[in-house]
Write a structure and sequence with these properties.
Leucine-rich repeat, LRR (right-handed beta-alpha superhelix); 3-stranded parallel β-sheet; mainly beta; disordered C terminus
Length: about 150
Amino acid sequence: MSTSDHCSWYGVSCNTGYYVTVINLPQSGLSGSLPFLKMDKLEYLTLPNNYLTGAIPNFDMGNLEQMILNDNSLDNGIPAFDKLPNLLDMILSNNNFSSIAYVLENCPKLVSIALTNNSHTLLSVHLDLCSAKQNTNLDDFVLDLTGTASNCSP
């Protein structure tokens, strides 16, 4: 097996240095839990509409820009993602999450997050949306929550 064999795998793209930059496996019949991934060059992780279960590990992927894991059976809360400084888009809708850690505080470049249609009527949001909004370029925050919202002072 040569050093570039993995670059020819279905759903995998690499850069010129043979580092994996894209994993794109929607509707691929994947099942089981997600492993902890430390992939410094990965930019896009796209695994929607599979049969993934369990918790999302606190991935260590400094270049990850897009994480799409919607329409699986992931649960056990969403980790802090303190090792994803370049994350722009996160789509985690249609899973079984019941809580969110400090995602917005640790992902300063996050522009879009979607968490609709998770298993509980009320997600327990453990973050300060006002300070998070000031520290990010967040344009799209899609949740289905009940509760109250407060105004953020300018």
